[in-house]
Amino acid sequence: MAKQDPATAKKFAALLKKSITAYKGEDPPPRDPVAQLIVSFMQWDSTRTKAEDAFVALMEEMIDVNDLRVSHPHELVEVIGKDYPNAVNRVIRLRESLHEVYAREHDIQMHSIAGKGKKEQRAYLDSLPGIAPYIAAQVTLLSFGGHAMPIDDKLLALLINEGCLHEGTSIADAESYLVRQIKAGDALEAHLALQAWADKRKAPAAKAPAKTTKTTKASKTTKSTKTTKKKTTKTTKATKSAPKKKVAKKKTTKKKVTKKK
């Protein structure tokens, strides 16, 4: 977990205050958890305006939510538009979550967690296949009144870029940190203001990883071998080019032998 510090907390507090002051939008209409689940799927890594328009288009085209659940992905993509961000993957994952709700409830409503505690409600949402933390957090906040802060990849990148979070902070860690910075009663206002702030901005470009040239043991061995060879060659050449020293021949003196008479 990337730990935050007083400097990041100060920057986030300033950004949040500025965003709340600038926010002039309206609160979203009250929706049942499943309807909100659909809106949240559309809003995840997109914008609030696009999500609302997509939800209206889907509900106008489909008979009801159950009809949406059993529709083919390509049919849903045709409704929201092929140019909708990550359209195919989005509707596939939405259908997975809706099918799981139906399997658990034998209905297209979340009756089993209606009167449960906030932690149980969040755990139920987090366990749905295809769901993202942003979606679970938004349904928790808007439909169940739980203390949550929806954060998707775009908002996370923007907050890191503004120095409000450290590089390498995960979405789960970011939500946990912001929940500690924002009181439960202020969470809805903070979410709507931050969402509006993010919707007006482009996601910052991903930073390219720093290039590092690592020398492997194999390459080091090769280099040292080459160096040794060079040294050996130089030594050989030096030996060959060295002038030969003349060895002086020893003179042998013959001893005179005196013959006996």
TrEMBL record:
Q: Which UniProt keywords apply?
A: Endonuclease, Hydrolase, Nuclease
Q: Where is the composition biased (Basic residues)?
A: 242-261
Q: Where is the composition biased (Low complexity)?
A: 205-225
Matching InterPro entries, A to Z? DNA_glycosylase (IPR011257), HhH_base_excis_C (IPR023170)
Gene3D superfamilies with a match to the protein in the record: Helix-hairpin-Helix base-excision DNA repair enzymes (C-terminal), Hypothetical protein, domain 2
- Origin superkingdom: Bacteria
List every stretch annotated Disordered.
200-261
- Record protein name field: Endonuclease III
Which GO MF term does the entry hold, naming one? endonuclease activity
Q: Does the keyword Zinc-finger apply?
A: no
Q: Look up keyword Hydrolase and say if it applies.
A: yes
Its Gene Ontology biological processes? Answer: DNA repair
